């Protein structure tokens, strides 16, 4: 029988993609969080699933020990263990989930499985008191999804990308420009010295009545632009800041236009932008400016909680711990969002100003 203690120290584990992360949440606060990003994928220009799961295996134990040491917490003091079990790379998910199961059995404590997208959606609550309902835009390497968040566990999917995720568009664009991986932070940095009006790249679907996004046209447009203007030699290094700024502007505008249109239609005053791409400096600037103009509030997280991290997993675990919502040890991992439990909801807009999911 699992014993339930009252102080609520939750160990969070995140291994859904290429970051190995462990965190400790005590009373809803982050006591420690450690993230080890796998550099081994750089030379391949993207994540290699087999390499990712092997790297998690070697990294997870040292990271776990460091997180405990940094948080000044002994493993025996942990009340529940939370791990990402969906969506993600199956081999990677299984490493974190099995470590969590082992800890649950060894200590006799409950296990809580967490949906990675839900964790991103609620990650704004780690640092802010955000009133419900709010619009949640999840922009990461694998997902671009717009949700109406009516409460914990009450999510309505409004729109999603029809092709590439926003982070993928940054990463693939960076690859075309001969930059490294992941491309988002590199484009962000170069763009700070560039002119966004240097070239007008397409903002697909912004006039479409759906709440979906599309980026494949933008990526193709960059490829043709580079071929037509710079031929086989590619752009001169001096042109990179301008190209990056113009390309980034098109991604940010596509996200901004759709999100604010939905916010207006539904009458949502609060918008949370979360996930790795929400660390983008231009995105933050433009979302904040627009919010000021329209009298809405934007919520983002510190950059370390934007990209993949176990603090958000432990935090959702902590929320579930309050309602004693635990999983069985037979719980499995789901690589795709289709089988995912927490944020799988029929698409469609709720009524304007409605509180229901
Ligand atoms: O949430 P995340 O860490 O992992 C996934 O769940 O996918 O997101 C990673 C993505 C990568 O595509 C990366 O290029 C992008 O987030 N990213 C950024 C920035 N920092 C990370 N994209 C644009 N600007 C940034 N500053
Ligand atoms: Zn993520």
List keywords for this structure.
2 domains; binds zinc ion; Nucleotidyltransferase, domain 5; 39% helix; alpha/beta; 5-stranded mixed sheet; 357 residues; binds 5'-O-[(R)-(carboxyoxy)(hydroxy)phosphoryl]adenosine; 10 strands; disordered N terminus
How would you sum up this structure, described in words?
The structure is a single chain. The protein has 357 residues and is of the alpha/beta class. It has two domains: 9-122 and 306-322, ATPase, nucleotide binding domain (Nucleotidyltransferase, domain 5), CATH 3.30.420; 130-300, ATPase, nucleotide binding domain (Nucleotidyltransferase, domain 5, 2-Layer Sandwich). Helices cover 39% and strands 18% of the residues. A five-stranded mixed sheet has the order 3-2-1-4-5, sandwiched between helices. The chain has a five-stranded mixed sheet with strand order 8-7-6-9-10, sandwiched between helices. α1 (49-71) packs parallel to α2 and α4 crosses α5. The longest helix has 27 residues, at 240-266. The protein is globular and about 65 Å long. 5'-O-[(R)-(carboxyoxy)(hydroxy)phosphoryl]adenosine is lined by residues 17, 140-142, 167, 170-171, 182-185, 188, 275-277, 279-280, 307-308.
Give the gist of this structure.
With 357 residues, this protein is α/β, with parallel strands linked by helices. It has helices at 49-71, 90-107, 116-122, 166-176, 183-191, 216-230, 240-266, 281-294, 303-306, 311-322; strands at 9-14, 19-26, 29-37, 80-86, 111-115, 134-139, 144-151, 154-160, 270-274, 297-299. It has two domains: 9-122 and 306-322, 2-Layer Sandwich (Nucleotidyltransferase, domain 5), CATH 3.30.420.40; 130-300, Nucleotidyltransferase, domain 5, CATH 3.30.420.
């Amino acid at each position: 029988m699992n014993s339930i203690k009252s102080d609520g120290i939750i160990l969070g584990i995140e291994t859904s993609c290429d970051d190995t992360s462990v965190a400790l949440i005590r009373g809803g606060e982050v006591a420690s969080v450690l993230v080890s990003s796998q550099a081994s994928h750089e030379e391949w220009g993207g994540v290699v699933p087999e390499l990712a799961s092997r790297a998690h295996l070697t990294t997870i134990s040292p990271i776990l020990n460091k997180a405990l040491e940094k948080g000044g917490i002994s493993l025996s003091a942990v009340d529940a263990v939370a791990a990402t079990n969906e969506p993600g790379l199956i081999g990677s998910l299984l490493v974190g989930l099995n470590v969590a199961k082992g800890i649950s059995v060894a200590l006799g404590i409950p296990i809580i499985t967490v949906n990675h997208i839900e964790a991103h959606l609620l990650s704004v609550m780690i640092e802010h008191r955000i009133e419900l309902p709010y619009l949640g835009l999840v922009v990461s390497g694998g997902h671009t999804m717009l949700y109406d968040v009516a409460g914990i566990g009450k999510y309505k999917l409004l729109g999603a990308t029809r092709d590439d995720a926003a982070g993928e568009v940054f990463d693939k664009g960076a690859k075309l420009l001969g930059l490294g991986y992941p491309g988002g932070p590199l484009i962000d940095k170069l763009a700070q010295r560039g002119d966004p009006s240097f070239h007008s790249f397409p903002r697909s679907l912004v006039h479409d009545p759906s709440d979906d996004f599309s980026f494949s046209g933008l990526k193709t447009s960059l490829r043709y632009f580079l071929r037509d203007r710079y031929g086989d030699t590619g752009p001169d290094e001096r042109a990179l800041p301008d190209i990056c700024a113009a390309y980034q502007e098109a991604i940010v505008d596509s996200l901004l236009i759709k999100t604010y249109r939905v916010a207006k239609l539904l009458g949502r005053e609060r918008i949370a932008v979360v996930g790795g791409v929400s660390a983008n400096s231009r995105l933050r600037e433009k979302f904040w400016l627009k919010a000021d103009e329209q009298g809405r509030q934007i919520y983002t997280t510190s950059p370390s909680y934007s990209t993949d991290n176990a603090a958000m997993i432990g935090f959702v675990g902590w929320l579930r711990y309050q309602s004693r919502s635990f999983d069985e040890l037979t719980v499995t991992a789901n690589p795709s969002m289709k089988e995912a439990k927490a944020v799988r909801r029929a698409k469609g807009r709720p009524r304007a100003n409605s509180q229901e999911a």
